[in-house]
Design goal:
The chain has 9 helices and 13 strands. With 344 residues, the chain is of the alpha/beta class. The chain has 3 domains: 93 residues, Beta Barrel (OB fold (Dihydrolipoamide Acetyltransferase, E2P)), CATH 2.40.50; 144 residues, 3-Layer(aba) Sandwich (Rossmann fold); 60 residues, Probable gtpase engc, domain 3 (Ribonucleotide Reductase Protein R1, domain 1), CATH 1.10.40.50. A 6-stranded mixed sheet has the order 10-9-8-11-13-12, with helices on both faces. It has a 5-stranded mixed barrel with strand order 1-2-3-5-4. A two-stranded antiparallel ribbon has the order 6-7. It starts with 8 loop residues before the first helix and ends in a 5-residue tail after the last helix.
């Protein structure tokens, strides 16, 4: 197996400087000068999707062109605003080159055990955390995504799909669970891609800005996409009856323009959403209801687990912090050391 070559800090800095120079139009790299006879002048574009070393870029008129990327570009993801140049003569395959990537407002990162941190999408305004009641609703997965949302500054929205499968008692129990999130400031919607329940409310949330669907495989993200965009050929599969685990239906992130306005990114489903790339302090700050209690512990280095005089534990005992969320927090902390790769 070929060992992956890592760039030095100086090389990363030089690459960033070159990209900024290109954006300001003050410099042209040698590779771009050599290509002047076959490339049009630089223009802005939007990355709709990334495929290996290629990306689909949309121009100002809505035309989509598949592009290569300059080797000096460190990362290109769905949602990126880029500077690119199209080929003067179309070949019908790769018809452009991405020269530089604009600064990102936000970026959603997913830790990968083999490749470290991997960006999923950029310039996101709303993170739609999709869960389903089958095979089982995992509040801990929701909490992991909420920590990621708080860390990246992206507004979250909780969406529970397949609500049509709930009985009366199950619906009551679910509403009580979600009320805990509503109390601390998170909105939620109960949806059914099958019956259309809650779809109008979801449309109102995504009609402006850029939203992204995140969640485990098999929760129905692609089905919701088909409801929001009738006729969309997004593949959907039934949850595996044998394993009880969802099957992957989306393999790459893809940005779509909604008919009513707004953009929506469909991202690949994942089994777990690890947080081992964050520090324990960052996870703690990701639980927003802990904020009033931070800094009040008896000891400055309090781990908020079993330390005496812990203000957060006191908040749990007083009923100001839900026991369910605190237990989920402890579960995340316990998993971080176990999940973290040895090289990270």
């Amino acid at each position: 197996m070929t060992k992956k070559k890592h760039l030095s800090k100086q090389q990363h800095h030089r690459i960033a400087q070159n990209e900024q120079k290109r954006l300001r139009g003050r410099d042209k790299p040698a590779s771009a000068q050599l290509a002047d006879d076959v490339l049009e002048p630089a223009e802005p574009g939007l990355v709709l999707s990334r495929f290996g070393q290629h990306a689909d870029v949309e121009d100002a008129q809505g035309q989509v062109v598949r592009c290569n990327m300059r080797r000096t570009i460190s990362s290109v993801v769905t949602g990126d605003s880029v500077i690119w140049r199209r080929a003067k003569q179309s070949t019908g395959s790769i018809d452009g080159v991405i020269e530089a990537v604009e600064d990102r407002r936000t970026v959603l990162l997913r830790p990968d055990f083999y490749d470290g941190l991997k960006p999923v999408a950029a310039n996101i305004d709303l993170m739609i955390i999709v869960s389903a009641i089958l095979p089982a609703l995992s509040l801990n997965i929701i909490d992991r995504y909420l920590v990621a949302a708080e860390k990246t500054g992206i507004k979250p929205l909780l969406v529970i799909n397949k609500a049509d499968l709930l009985s009366g008692d199950e619906l009551t129990q679910l509403t009580e669970q979600l009320h805990l999130y509503q109390q601390i400031g998170y909105d939620y919607l109960l949806l059914s891609a099958k019956t259309g329940q809650g779809m109008q409310e979801l449309l109102q949330q995504v009609h402006s800005g850029t939203s992204i669907f995140v969640g485990q495989s098999g929760v129905g993200k692609s089905s919701l996409m088909n409801q929001l965009m009738p006729g969309l050929a997004a593949a959907t599969r039934e949850v595996s009856e044998n394993s009880g685990l969802g099957q992957h239906t989306t393999t790459v992130s893809r940005l779509y323009h909604l008919p009513e306005g707004g953009d929506l990114i469909d991202s690949p489903g994942i089994r777990e959403f690890a947080l081992w790339h964050l520090s324990a302090e960052e996870v703690t700050s990701g639980f927003i209801e802990f904020a009033p209690w931070l800094g009040q512990c008896k000891f400055r280095d309090c781990k908020h687990i079993s330390d005496p005089g812990c203000a957060i534990q006191h908040g749990v005992q007083q009923g100001e912090i839900s026991r369910e969320r605190y237990d989920s927090y402890l579960k995340i902390l316990a998993s971080m050391a176990q999940d973290k790769p040895h090289y990270f």
